[in-house]
Amino acid sequence: xxxxxxxxxxxxxxxxxxxxxxxxxxxxxxxxxxxxxxxxxxxxxxxxxxxxxxxxxxxxxxxxxxxxxxxxxxxxxxxxxxxxxxxxxxxxxxxxxxxxxxxxxxxxxxxxxxxxxxxxxxxxxxxxxxxxxxxxxxxxxxxxxxxxxxxxxxxxxxxxxxxxxxxxxxxxxxxxxxxxxxxxxxxxxxxxxxxxxxxxxxxxxxxxxxxxxxxxxxxxxxxxxxxxxxxxxxxxxxxxxxxxxxxxxxxxxxxxxxxxxxxxxxxxxxxxxxxxxxxxxxxxxxxxxxxxxxxxxxxxxxxxxxxxxxxxxxxxxxxxxxxxxxxxxxxxxxxxxxxxxxxxxxxxxxxxxxxxxxxxxxxxxxxxxxxxxxxxxxxxxxxxxxxxxxxxxxxxxxxxxxxxxxxxxxxxxxxxxxxxxxxxxxxxxxxxxxxxxxxxxxxxxxxxxxxxxxxxxxxxxxxxxxxxxxxxxxxxxxxxxxxxxxxxxxxxxxxxxxxxxxxxxxxxxxxxxxxxxxxxxxxxxxxxxxxxxxxxxxxxxxxxxxxxxxxxxxxxxxxxxxxxxxxxxxxxxxxxxxxxxxxxxxxxxxxxxxxxxxxxxxxxxxxxxxxxxxxxxxxxxxxxxxxxxxxxxxxxxxxxxxxxxxxxxxxxxxxxxxxxxxxxxxxxxxxxxxxxxxxxxxxxxxxxxxxxxxxxxxxxxxxxxxxxxxxxxxxxxxxxxxxxxxxxxxxxxxxxxxxxxxxxxxxxxxxxxxxxxxxxxxxxxxxxxxxxxxxxxxxxxxxxxxxxxxxxxxxxxxxxxxxxxxxxxxxxxxxxxxxxxxxxxxxxxxxxxxxxxxxxxxxxxxxxxxxxxxxxxxxxxxxxxxxxxxxxxxxxxxxxxxxxxxxxxxxxxxxxxxxxxxxxxxxxxxxxxxxxxxxxxxxxxxxxxxxxxxxxxxxxxxxxxxxxxxxxxxxxxxxxxxxxxxxxxxxxxxxxxxxxxxxxxxxxxxxxxxxxxxxxxxxxxxxxxxxxxxxxxxxxxxxxxxxxxxxxxxxxxxxxxxxxxxxxxxxxxxxxxxxxxxxxxxxxxxxxxxxxxxxxxxxxxxxxxxxxxxxxxxxxxxxxxxxxxxxxxxxxxxxxxxxxxxxxxxxxxxxxxxxxxxxxxxxxxxxxxxxxxxxxxxxxxxxxxxxx
Length: 1172
Prior knowledge:
By secondary structure, the protein is of the alpha/beta class. It has 39 helices and 44 strands. It is globular. It starts with 20 loop residues before the first helix and ends in a 9-residue tail after the last helix.
C-alpha cells in the first residue's frame, strides 16, 4: 500500500485554541486543591517537600498579581534567574497568569569554566539586551549558588532597561508561604498577600506570546524565539489521548532548565492535573538517576539523548514504573533506546519534537528496534502538524518516498518568530505557497462565536517553518532526517550556530582560518570540531613572550590535509580559553585539529566532507621497535588492559604502554577511571574498585590485581572490607595483656617533672606537641624517629622540623633524646635497648604517629596504625608505670549513625555526641581504611582501660595552623581546599559545619589529657568553639581579595575534574592542590564532610586540671577558627608561595613574623609527616 504523505492544502484548524495553560492550571487547583502538585525530592541540603495544587496556585497568583500591579502586561518579558525547584514552577505560572512572557537564564549552565559571578557579567547582559525584559525574578536557590546579580548586570539593568519590578529572592517555604525578598523593610509581596486565591483579571489569546527561548546566533548574540499560547496548549489534548496521559501520571522534571523542553516538563502535568517530581541535582548523574527513578516511580519524563545516557550509562537499577519517555532535542539512536528498554521494560519511547515516532515497550514488542537502523526517525507530525519535504531545486514540488529534500514544518501552533528580527523571521517563517491563506480567513470569519480571546488573535496564518534539515519520507510515511542545510545545529538540546563559533574563533590573533563542524566521534556521539589554520608568525611571537620553546613538527598528511599533531598543542588551550570568554559552554568545541590549510573544493569553498575526522586529534606516532619488543613480553592480561587504556585515553598507542606505565600518567583521569573499571568488569568479570586502581595505577599492578581476583585470591577480602575491621577487633582484643599497670598522674608535676615518649614528633601536630611538652617545667622528651640512619641524624631531623615551624629553642637540646623506629614493624621498630630505655624511663606515652592515607584499605594500614597502638600500650605495661594518650580522629565518627545521632540529640536539647559513647555506631559503615584503623585502636585502648590502663583517647577534627604564627600544614585537606579553590577561581557551596581547631590548641588538649587523665581511659573531644560553616570558611578567601565566587558543588566538582585531568594540553598550570585527595573531592564532599556536634566536657575537665597542676592558664573555653586566623594562614601560604597573593578587592592579609617566613624558606617543612 502506498504511503499516505501529508497534503499541504488541508485545514489545520487555525482557530482550534484550547485556552491558556495557566487558566487550566488554575481550574485544576480549584477543583483539586489538596492534590499533590510538585514534589522536590530529598537533597543533601533539604528534605523531601511536597506542595499541593492550592499552594502552587496561590504562590503563582501572588507572583502574577505583583507583576500586574507593577504594570507588567501582555507581551512583557519576565526574565527568571532559574533553579530546578518548585519556585521555578511558580515563577513560570505566575508570569503567564500576568499575561507576560517567561524566559529563563541559568548562569551555572552558561560557561562551566568561568566562575559564577564572572559568568553573569560576561553573558547575562547579552540575554537581557536581546530579550529586553520588564521584570526580573531571581529564584532564591539560584541566588544561594551564584550569588546576587553581579554589579555589572545590575548596572546594565538600571541604565539600559526599563525594569518595572524586580523580585530579588523568590522562595516558597515548607508550609507554602511565598516570599520574594525585602524592600523598605517589608516583603515584596506584602501588598498582594490578600489576592493569592485568584490571578489578576487579564486576558490572553492564541497569538499572545507565552514563551521566549534562546538560540545561538551570529556574531556572538543569541536569538530569541517567541512562542504563542496557541502552540503551548494545542497538543496537550492530543498527547493525553495518544499516549494515555492523565491526572494520575507522575512526571519527572529532567530537562535542562534553559532548554525549550522544560516547558513540557512543567506545563504538561499542570495542564493535566498530574504530579511533577523534581530531583535533587546530586541525583542527576550516572547510576544515581536510575536509582532515583526506581525510588520515586515517575511514569513520564522528557529527556535529551544526553540525559538518557546519564539515566542508563553504567546503571543496573531498573525502573518498572516508567511508561513513557519523550526524547527531544537531538538525534536519538537505537543504541540509546536498547539501553533504556533493558532497565525500563514497560517504557514506551517517543522521539518527539513537533513530530513523533513511537517505539513500543520491550514488554509489548521485544523486536521493535530491529528494523530501524542506527537512528530513530523523526516520524509523523502531531495532530495538525505536517512535515513537508520539498525538492531543493523546486520548492513547489513535494518529494516522494525515498527522495531527499528540504524539511518544512506546517502547523497551526507555530511560533511567532524571532524577537526584534523581522528579517530572520521572514526568512524562516514563510507563507504556505501551496494554498491561498484567504481560504482559511474566510472560513474563520464564518465560524466566529464572539470568543473574548479573539482580541489577541490575528486570524489564520498558514505558514511553513524552514527547519534547515534534509530528510526523506519512508515507506510508512514517517520522516527520517538525514542532515542539515545550514550551519545551525543542535547538540544535547542546545541550538548552536556554527558560524557564530567561527566568527569568534577568527577573532583570535593566533588563528588565520577556521571551520567548525559537527562530527561524530569514535563513540558515535555528535561533537563540535574546529579545524584551525594557525597564524604561524603570531604563534612564534606568543611562544617567545611566554618563554616556551617551539616544537618541530612537519605534520602528517591525511587525505588532502596536513595535520599538526604536536607543534600547536598549547594553541589548542589558548583558542579554547579565547572562546570560553565569548560563547556559552555548549558552543565551545571540544576538539581542535590544527591544519596547514583548509582544503577547498572546485568551487573555491571549504571542502568540509574531506576535512579529517575527530580521530585525527587522537593520532600518535607509531610504536618503536623497542616498544614492540616490550609488547610481546607482556602477559595476556597486561595486553588486554593496555588496549583498554588506549581505547579510553585519546592519543595513546597500546603498544607503547610498559609494565611500569601509570594509568593517570598516560592521560587517565577520574571519569576515565570509572569507565575503565566498567570495561575491566565486562571483559574479565572482575570488580576492581576505585581505591584498588589508585593503589595499583601501573599496568603491572592493576593486571596483578585483576589476575588475583580472577583466581579468587582477593575477592573475599575486597568484598568484606566493610566488615573486616570490626572482625579484626574481635581477634585483636585477645592479644591484649590480661591486665595493665596503672600510673598515678598525681605523682607527676612541675616540681617532680615528667618524661614523655612521643611518636610522630616530626609531623605537624607532633612539632607543636614537642613545644607544648617542653614549654612545661622539668619535662623531657624521647622522640620516636623513623627513617634516620643514626641517632645524631634523628635528632638533627627533629631539630630541623621544629626550626621550620619556628618552634625550636636551643635550651631544649639537652632535654631531647631520640630512638630509631618504624611503626610498620613489631614493637614500634625499636631495638631491644631502645625498648628497654623507654620502658624504664618514660612516664607518659603519647602515640601521635599514624599512616595517613585516604584510599588505602584497613589491611594495608593495620600494622602501622593498629598493631603499633597495641605495642605502645604494651610499652606502658613494662618497666615504669605510664600514662597513655592516643591521638585519634573524628574519622571514627564518619558514619550516618553519628551524624543522625548528633542531629537528633541537638534537636531535642540533649546535647551532641557524648565522649562516653561506646562507638558501636561505627562498628560498620566507616568508609576509609584510616578511619577504620583509628576506630579499632580506640576500642582496644578502651578495653585496656577496663584492664587497668590509665589514659585518654583524644579525638580532634581538622587541625589547622598556628593561631600565633600562621604556620600551616600544606598537606591538610582544608588548606589544599583553599588552594584548589584559588586555582579553580571558584568555591563550592557546602554548608556543613567545620570542626577545625588551631594546632596549638590541639597540642594543648593532647598534653593536658595525657598528664591529667580521668580514671581508666576516657575519650576527650577536641571541638571548635565556635564552629564555622564550610561556606564561611571558604568565603574568607573572598574577604581577603581572592576571586573565588561561590558556585554549586556539582558545578565546582566538574570544574575540578576538568582542571586536574586536563594536563598540559588544556591547562599550563600546576596540578590542582586537591589531586592527592581527589577521590574525596570528587565523590560527595557535602555528604562526606558532615561533622556531628561533639560533647567535650572531658576536654574541659582535663584543661582545667592542667591549668591547676601545670600551666596556670585555663584553656577550657576552647578555641575555634576565626576570619583573622584564616587571614594569617593565607598570609603564611602566600609568603611561602603555596598560593598566589590575592589580586582582588579585599582586606589586607594580617602580618606574620618575618622570621617564620625565613625559617620556612631555610628548613622547608609544612607537610604532615605524621608517621615519622
